[in-house]
Amino acid sequence: MAITVETRTDIIELVVGMFDAAPGASVLSELATSVDAGLSLKDLAITLGNSSVFTAEYPTFLTNTEFATNYLTNFLGGNPGEVSSANFTLAVDAVVALLNSGKSRGEVVYDVITAVSAVAETDTNFGTAAARLNNQTEVAVHYSVTTQQSGSTLDDLKAVIDTVTSDDATVTAAKATVDGSDNEGGTFTLTTAIDTLKGGSGNDTFIGAQNGATEGAQGYQTADNLDGGAGTDLFKITVTDATTAPLVSTTNVENFEIQTTVAETVNAANWSSPSSITNKQSTNTLTVSNVGAIGTVGVSGVTNNTSTTTVQYSASTTGDTTVNIALTNSSDAGAVRADNNTAGGGVENFVVTSVGTNKIAALTMGTDAKKVTFAGDGNATVTATLANATTIAATGAGKSSFSSAVAKVAITGAAGAETVTLGHTSGTAHEFSVALGAGNDSLTLTNLVLAADLTDSKVTIDGGEGTDTLTMKSALTEVLTNLSTTAVAKKGIANTWEVLKVSDQGAANDTVDLTKIGSNITTVDYAAGLGDAQDIVDLASGGTVVLGAAASAAGDTLTVGVKDANVAGSSSDVLNVKLDGSHAGADLDYGVLVAAAVETININSTTTKLTALVAADTNQVDLTAANAVNINVTGNVLADLDGAALTGNALATIDATGNTAGVNVTTAGATQGISIKGTDKVDNLTGGNGADAIVGNGGKDVITGGQGDDALTGGADADTFVFEAAATNGKDTIADFTMGTGGDVLNLSALTSAAGSANLTTIGSTAAQAMADNVLYITSQDTAGKDFGGADFADLFGAGKAFATTDTGASAANSFVIVIDDNAGSAAQLYIVDQSDGDAVDATDVTLVGVLTDVTASSFVAANFDLT
């Protein structure tokens, strides 16, 4: 029976996932024969997992955690590679758990590959990992099936998909490489003897290992002579011993690839005209000296930030020239230098082309450097400040991140997202130009605080298209605000920025005037939190204020002026507020937010914490917004809201149903009825003096109706309803009270002066009965209307009835509570009886404070009452 296309692709995907390599036509033929004979893919994975090829890559002496980490680093393209650090950790934990359960490594790898293959590429957690696997499989199919090529070594097969990531552009590039490799050359492995090797017309590969304790014991020798012949040839050097590298002579070998685990200098004096020199997955410092021709310097798969790459050109090769730096999936590499290693360096132009995601510690350049260009579809971050270059251009579609403090630097962007930091010092008149492109770009002015720091008419600060962020210190926003419109225009800030980020806590009365700094700005982000009283002038309705850290003091106040909010007839103004500090197991108090003329306030209570949230991670902000009608709360962090805003006469609704962590809110003092809706977590909701409608939803909520006749609904879980003193409580209606053990709780501590926990006496009739507890639960149907009016009063307090005489029990001369159940399991009424004015109970001593509707068919127990 012939194998199907689908099964063949599954075999190729399995090899890709297990070995980070294409199978090649010959290996694929063997594996397909086994599967066609009845071997399942899982059994094939188990067999391959026990093979010497697999155990050479992942030795059996590795612990389960070490194996999981090493395997996933290869499978995901790095640590964390194509996923976040948190998801990488989750994946490691999952693999370790499967191994600990007794599964073999081959079976666990099969499970991982199968799971990732089934993930949609749009998935926010592992979609990029799925895309990488799909893309690598596509290229492996092209190599093994379409062109029917076979590699000589595992390294050859790894190289087929080595540059393929989740980016579809890498598939096109890799296929083009495969299509160009039909003229496949030979593979030559150098020995401890003297080797004189000559390649043919194909693309030959020479392999040398520096692995001996002495030069003579190395896997290649100083007297070796390599001639690549025709084709595009490669010399691969692996260094595991720090002895002096042999001085090999090469002719017609274009590309050099070096991997070292020790600090090593390789002398290239006898390499004839190399086109490229690549640091390939090294974990230590690599220096290549005496390079006689300018070419491409590559850094590929380097993830150890101590791994500095230095390519030293001979003095005669440098001058007015350009060096290409090729970064490929090097997520955490050290500094890169490619010049003649003098103070000047001898190189004027550097072009950094990126594939995948890359970060290098520095791009080290001499004083001759004039220009740096960031190109390619991948992402590049240079951590250290770029020195000397007066022109920096981002031309590719990928993201680039870099900094400069060079005088008169000119920076331009393109379609990618650029993150630019300028480190010019304050106190000096600076000239520079930043004109970014169509991406979502960011520019940070790190130190500037004076108007004079920006030389009039000599500065350009332009975000271009996209959603762009301009970051500056609070003092600079203040001085720009205080300039005239004409004067601020000379500072070069184009009205092309959408987000203004304030990088530090401001001084008293620092102001952001968006009529001066940029009317196009719709978000103002106080990344460091408030430092004192701050102001925003003319933020557009629908704009956003971000508070990114706790205020310096709880009373620090931000006053937000929404554009035209005070204009007559303006009744639909909106302000969005985002609370997103980095929590550390404690509440963050963001201070006070004042927005006097805004009708709708939307609060997103969230966090920038990278690890899991804990219960103590909460957000607190005081609001003052007298005209607020609607307050909506979303996010994933508990929001603690209070302040004068919540007593405003206009306030109608507080809706926190979009929040997933909980809300604490009080409208105490508000005179109108307000609708308050809680979350599905634990909420603390307090109404005001009007007839409020409060819904707790899920969670064990604490609901206080306050004054007024309130409508209260607890929702799921056991909720606590808190009553005020009888004189102010009003008549609250509770819609879903659950009686019995584990049910809801009536907190009556404000209604009775008794101390201690609740005591419950159940009375089955209106006949005289001893009464010595604080809560009297009447189940009799003998009361006429069950409303404590008319004949009911006589039934309970008349001569010979249950409460005809003064109580002599625990509640003597105190208030006590009577609950009347209609015995139908659906309603109950709650009364407070105040005996403090005398011995006899009359109608003036009895007040209806609550009605319980839709009561569960059960009976009250002491735990349903809290008198403490």
TrEMBL record:
<dbReference type="InterPro" id="IPR011049">
    <property type="entry name" value="Serralysin-like_metalloprot_C"/>
</dbReference>
<dbReference type="Pfam" id="PF00353">
    <property type="entry name" value="HemolysinCabind"/>
</dbReference>
<dbReference type="InterPro" id="IPR018511">
    <property type="entry name" value="Hemolysin-typ_Ca-bd_CS"/>
</dbReference>
<dbReference type="GO" id="GO:0005509">
    <property type="term" value="F:calcium ion binding"/>
</dbReference>
<dbReference type="InterPro" id="IPR001343">
    <property type="entry name" value="Hemolysn_Ca-bd"/>
</dbReference>
<protein>
    <submittedName>
        <fullName>Uncharacterized protein</fullName>
    </submittedName>
</protein>
